[in-house]
Amino acid sequence: MKLDTSFVRSQFPAFSEPTLEGWAFFENAGGSYPCQQVIDRLTDFYTKNKVQPYYPYPASTAGGKLMDQAYERMAGYLNVDPSEVHFGPSTTQNVYVLANAMRPMWKDGDQIVVSCQDHEANAGAWRRLADRKIEVLEWHVDKDTGLLSLEDLKSLLTERTKMVAFPHCSNVIGQINPVKEITRMAHEHGALSVVDGVGWAPHGFPDLKDLDTDIYMFSLYKTFGPHLGLMHVKQELIGKMQNQSHFFKEGVTRSMITPAGPDHAQIASVNGILDYFDAVYDHHFEISAEPAQRNRAINKLFRKHEKELLSYFLDFLRSRDDIEVLGSEHPDDRAPIVSIIPKKKNINEVYSKLIEQKLMLGIGDFYAVRPLLDMDIPRDPGVLRMSFIHYTNKEEIDQLIEGLKKALA
Questions:
Q1: Dist. CA 401–CA 383, nearest whole Å
Q2: 196-215: per-residue pLDDT in tens?
Q3: DSSP per-residue codes, 18-64
Q4: pTM of structure
Q5: CA 360/CA 23 separation, integer angstroms
Q6: Domain span at residue 74?
Q7: Are strands 24-25 and 111-115 parallel, antiparallel or unpaired?
């Protein structure tokens, strides 16, 4: 079965917006277009339920129910318990809170492993624990490929290791890391597996029961929704953390690691992401299914479509001798996040010409400073990044290819 991209694109107002006509969007790793369902949910909440939730009057009661539904429905898609789902203002802020909540769990001199392939959101706050007597071990990437080696990780794990933090998928290298295997290795040493899923989640929500990670995080504004960060934290782990909220919130797991008051409307609008997923499933399949099954089915649709476009695009890139592609050139082991460096042209000039061709893409380090440092790539100007997801169509890839031909000429 093929993904019906016409149906998919009809769910996103951006594709019928006159001011965006003719522009092809390739900065999806920085933030996706929101689907119509999220926009409707957010508007509806602000119109009808923008009051303090959980009081017994109708507008308040309905608002609380909509928020609870977001936790429950998201948990269903991720295949976890609703009590293990947490919404915070951003992934960066969520990691900052987690680092402070988890430090009291560990003794002075305990070790944590932090990969150098991460977006800084899942690196900076953990590394600062070195100032609080935690030994931080760096899991470096290969200088030439940008990839992480499991053999290198083995050499870092000891009886003192308490945590391994790494990305599901790098936001500049594009490599899909073997989360289950890394998690198993961490657990064999009694360590926690903490995964930055920001790069991968736009390409398919994970089955977290299957992955068995202790903490998994991603950004909802990169998965067609509001500007929130989502954390999955195993229930037994929450009880070991230090409460980061008000003293009277001790034991209230939904509050302990989200100290700021929740954004009621944005949490309620998360239902819109799941409305969209349900719509995609119902459009393509006639069989009734539970949310986790729906998620697996649409993930296959998304992945097949993205791999076809990625294969086509990588074939073009391999035909060129004037660009360097970061990471693997094979679509099976990478996401459609492709960073390149022109070899014969000034990168800023190439970027400017791409914008002239109505191509929306990014340039810089994308807060993935550490892999660029490991690979001796200057932060300024950094790399050109082209990222796409399931709503991208072949016509847009053709526009990108033609734009690159002109910009590199």
A1: 17
A2: 999 999 999 999 999 999 99
A3: GGGTT-EE-BGGG-PPPPHHHHHHHHHHHHH--S-TTSSSHHHHHHH
A4: 0.97
A5: 7
A6: 41-273
A7: unpaired
